[in-house]
Design a protein that fits this description.
Length: 466
């Protein structure tokens, strides 16, 4: 057992929390979305929470932790869904939330610290020069930019820009290594993929350079259809409209909108499926004309209501907020993450809708993927048992719809990040004792792990890229 009294002394001057209740609170994320992870991770807790204010304090913390063989699990805001930020082996939770300043803003890019909340980052870049991040998770109001890069994948804006996996959507990361004498590395180009969506297993991100896009006062819109597949076809057609500028297109099947979107209920009929949208103000006229042609019913426009007070942003109905709103009403609900590879993505969705009906109510996100429009899904699942969940996953996969399993806490089993020899060599270099977020990378713990399996990964292995 490490000598935490001594460790605290050696970290004197850096903010430390050791109250067990508060430490436990900061050892959690949104793992409880999954009944399986909830059972597995409920008792996980760290021993200390350390909150550095500077890169120098990060370096000191890692130095001390390395000397005492203490695991360190970085944390942004703890909004990850798969236990990414949960310290499986105890030790230190490194809370980056106090490193939250913007250092520089330029045309097309921003340089900032990792702990800034994404909505605050957008607020400052918009006020400075009318710019905003290309895309953000639906947790923008609470999540940090560092946590998004290390634990997320894409979100609001991915219809235009793709995701974090795409070269150019992160420009530079500064990373501190976990060694006797921690080094500071500046990563660019393909090297960025060593750290993006790696759950902080191979370095602590202390500085970030992100590309920016023009900011707009996006108009929130809901379009209603009586049939979910009509909503899906409308979404697909809109996503392929060259001239209409959209930031979010999420078709969501009945009964989700009327039953679970309590604040929007006055705008949604029972049995109605909706598409949650964000449209640039100057695109509203062509958008209305297009929607009329597609026989969609505009049931809500944020630019036409008297006040938005108490009404959440449209993007807070989408991505994993759809699941959150459903779980709040019915805690037995969980979800999946599905890819519907194109060009026949609409047909694949239809097949799954027909197969599962209301056991798996549909929720899609239209995105740009490898240059093509397709959709990803975060369908709800009316959970009955682990065996049935596995069966639902298998049926999707048998129909050519890969699952990124949100009921697993390791990088590999989640299926988003492929580890390989390059990734492993980088971890050996940056974290030789395996102290960073231990237990999250199977390839590190199991030398026989076969990372060459033919499985589909969102963030492919590095050997194939470089
Ligand atoms: P945390 O959860 O604190 O951390 C995420 C991971 O990053 C952890 O492994 C942590 O160890 C690591 N980490 C944190 N900071 C650092 C650092 N400085 N250096 C190295 N590693 C670090 N995700 C999406 O991609 N898109 C979405 O639209 C989306 N919507 C969501 C909606 C809801 C309601 C919820 C609950 C989750 C959603 N997520 C989504 C998942 C999650 O919110 C995002 O990935 C989010 O950006 C994580 O940020 P965070 O600050 O909370 O990170």
């Amino acid at each position: 057992m490490p000598d935490y009294q001594r460790i605290k002394k050696e970290l004197e001057g850096i903010s430390i929390e050791d109250n067990p209740a508060l430490v436990r609170q900061k050892s959690r994320d949104f793992y409880w979305y999954s009944p399986i992870l909830k059972a597995q991770l409920d008792n996980v807790t760290a021993d200390l929470v350390v909150t550095p204010k500077t890169e120098e304090e990060v370096i000191r913390t890692l130095q001390v932790a390395y000397a005492h063989d203490v695991p360190v699990t970085p944390r942004g805001a703890g909004t990850g869904n798969y236990g990414q930020a949960m310290p499986l082996s105890g030790g230190i939770v490194l809370n980056l939330a106090a490193m939250n300043t913007i250092k520089e803003i330029h045309p097309g890019r921003v340089i900032c610290e990792p702990g800034i909340v994404i909505a605050e980052l957008d607020r400052q870049t918009k006020a400075h020069s009318g710019q905003e991040l290309r895309f953000h998770p639906s947790t923008a109001q609470t999540a940090t930019i560092g946590g998004f890069i290390a634990g997320g994948s894409g979100g609001v804006g991915s219809i235009t820009w793709g995701g974090l996996r795409d070269l150019g959507n992160i420009l530079r990361l500064r990373v501190v290594t976990m060694e006797a004498e921690p080094r500071v590395l500046d990563l660019t180009g393909w090297d960025l993929t060593k750290v993006s969506h790696a759950y902080g297993t191979n370095g602590i991100i202390t500085e970030i350079e992100m590309p920016l896009a023009p900011a707009y006062d996006w108009v929130d819109v809901l379009v209603g259809y009586d049939d979910f597949m009509d909503a899906v076809r409308f979404s697909d057609a809109l996503a392929k409209c060259n001239g209409i500028l959209v930031k979010e297109i999420a078709p969501i099947a009945a009964p989700i909108p009327h039953e679970y979107f309590t604040r929007h209920k006055p705008y949604i009929r029972e049995g109605q499926s909706i598409v949650a949208l964000m449209i640039a103000p100057h695109s509203m006229d062509p958008f209305v004309a297009f929607t009329r042609q597609q026989k969609g019913e505009i049931t809500f426009r944020s630019d036409k209501v008297e006040s938005m007070k108490g009404i959440p942003h449209a993007y807070e109905l989408a991505w994993n907020h759809t699941t959150l709103r459903a779980i709040k009403v019915d805690p037995s609900i969980t979800y999946l993450q599905v890819q519907y590879p194109g060009p026949d993505h609409v047909a694949k969705v239809q097949k799954m809708v027909e197969t599962f009906g209301d056991e798996v109510p549909g929720h899609l996100e239209f995105i740009r993927f490898d240059g093509q429009i397709q959709c990803a899904g975060l369908p709800l699942v009316r959970y009955t048992s682990e065996a049935r969940l596995e069966e639902i996953i298998r049926i999707h996969q048998d129909h050519g719809c890969p699952i990124f399993n949100p009921h697993r806490y390791t990088l590999e089993e989640g299926g988003m990040k492929q580890t390989d020899a390059v990734q492993l060599a980088f971890k050996r270099e940056t974290d030789p004792k395996g102290l960073l977020n231990p237990g999250k990378m199977i390839a590190w713990d199991d030398p026989d792990f076969d990372f060459k399996s033919g499985k589909n990964y969102l963030f492919p292995g590095l050997a194939a890229l470089m």
